[in-house]
Amino acid sequence: MIRALWFLLKVAIVIAAAIWLADRPGTVSVHWLGYAVEAPFWVALLVALAALGIAALGYRLLRGVVRTPTRIRRFSRTRRRERGYRALTQGMVAIAAGDAPTARKMARKADGLLNEPPLTMLLSAQAAQLQGDERAAKQYFNAMLERPETAFLGMRGLLTQAIKSGDRVEALALARKARNLQPNTPWLLGTLYDLEARSGDWAAAEGTLQQAIQAGAIPTAEGRRHRTVLLLERSFEAERRGRADAALSHAQAAHDLMPGFVPAAVRLSRLLAADDRLKPAAKVVERAWRQSPHPELADVYRVVVDSYDPLTRVKLFQKLVRQSPDSAESHIALARVAMEAQLWGEARQHVTRALEIEPSRRLYRLLAELERNERNDEAAARDWLAKAAAAPADPAWSCGSCGAVSHAWGGLCGHCGAFDSLSWKAPTVTASLMEPGTLAPALNAPATVRPATA
Ligand SMILES: [Zn+2]
To answer: Which segment of 114-128, 137-151, 283-297, 414-428 scores lowest on mean pLDDT?
Structure first.
């Protein structure tokens, strides 16, 4: 509607101008270089307008010709970028599909077409890794370190490589550098904590653990257990350095965090008993027995009651096992002290009760001992020993990562170096006895934060 009105208005203006010109007739004469041209005014006006139109057209044509190379360049650049991004996408799809040759081809193509090193370098590195070319991947990761926007990604790549190749010293150094770049990255804090714990840097690991819990990399309950293990290791370390007070205070802190955790209760009660503080030692064992009856706790309790006569010891042990009267471990502990007191009937009764709950090698061996000591019956003892050989294996400190068995609890598996992997259970594979805390060269265990066991 507005357009139609505007058109009518333009027509009206042209007609008005034509009428105005027709009402004012006149001529225009031009004398130039000996030529004389004379024309009515309206013809001169038309000629002037036509000349102006031709000039404008010429200008546009000329401008188009001048701008053509720039336009061609811009068009080809856009097409290049489009092809580059297409190659990048195809490369990423190939990586997801595990197609290494295509991934590498596309990475090279994208690198040639795009001027986006952060994207193409990562793709190239991943493609190289997929093809098993770790050396090439390392070169890309190192190149990524040189740009601030890719430094962290490069560091992550190198860290993953170091962990995979089992170079824990390098991995630890890289993880610490990466933390300086991005201090609150959850996966990094979890990995750094695990590396510090595996390297035995307990104090540093405790600090990193706190950060990892705050960043949500490790659940709070699991973190509490990790902290308990770290404190126990700090206690062992302090003892090795002759700092008895620190050894005791770390053990106390560990026991306070997890009163039912056997290694903490054993550690604290042993240190207290060694310091001749028998009553607190007994309290620690009794408290732990309620949650987790365990032969090592019974051993410490035996040390605590050592100064008493055999019959009093039996009474004191009866007091201990009241914390968990129905467990097999309680009956085994009572059977042992009853045998020491030569209360054969009572000892036999408890062994039988324990056998009903859970048969095991040590129970058959205990019965053999009973036959020898009480009745001097070597034939019966041999029968029980034969049964022991066929019975299920006794529980031991077994590594959840590699299956190795350790004769004593420790924060690190002596075989594979895993942190907090030992739990009290029947071993699943035949494994030799190890000293905990001595790292064997099996470095290929994954450096991840494992869920708590036992
Ligand atoms: Zn292990």
So the answer is: 114-128
Inside any domain, residue 348: yes
In a domain, 412, yes or no: yes
CATH number at residue 384: 1.25.40.10
Is the domain of 312 the same as that of 369? yes
Same domain, 362 and 407: no
Among residues 363, 392, 421, the one where a domain terminates is 392
Cα of 257 vs centre of ligand 1, distance in Å, is 25
| C-alpha 298 to ligand 1 mean position (Å) | 26
**What pLDDT is stored for residue 268 in this prediction?**
98
354 shares a domain with 325: yes
Q: How far is the CA of 353 from the centre of ligand 1 (A)?
A: 34
The answer to whether residue 340 is domain-embedded is yes
Q: How far is the CA of 409 from the centre of ligand 1 (A)?
A: 12
CA of 437 to the centre of ligand 1 (A): 11
Residue 27 counted as domain residue? no
* 388 and 313 share one domain: yes
Is pLDDT above 60 for 58?
yes
Cα-to-centroid distance, 421 and ligand 1 (Å): 7
Q: What range does the domain containing 360 cover?
A: 305-392
Residue 319 has pLDDT above 70, yes or no: yes
pLDDT digits (tens, 9 = 90+) for 336-376: 999 999 999 999 999 999 999 988 899 999 999 999 999 99
pLDDT confidence bin for 317, thresholds 50/70/90: very high
Which of these three, 349, 367, 392, is where a domain ends? 392
Geometric angle at alpha carbon 342, from 340 and 347, rounded to 5°: 80
Same domain for 339 and 385: yes
Structurally, how many domains does the chain consist of?
2
Spatial CB neighbours of 377, under 8 Å, sequence gap ≥ 6: 371
- Ligand 1 centre distance from Cα of residue 398 (Å): 8
Averaged pLDDT of the chain: 88
In percent, the amount of the chain with pLDDT more than 90 equals 60
| 436-439: long-range contacts, CB 8 A cutoff, minimum separation 24 | 436/397, 436/406, 436/408, 436/409, 436/410, 436/411, 436/412, 437/200, 437/236, 437/410, 437/411, 437/412, 438/414, 439/412, 439/414
How many A from CA of 453 to the centre of ligand 1?
13
Whole-number Å distance, alpha carbon 301 to ligand 1 midpoint, is 29
Verify that 310 and 367 share a domain, yes or no. Answer: yes
Question: How far apart are the CA of 413 and the centre of ligand 1, in A?
Answer: 5
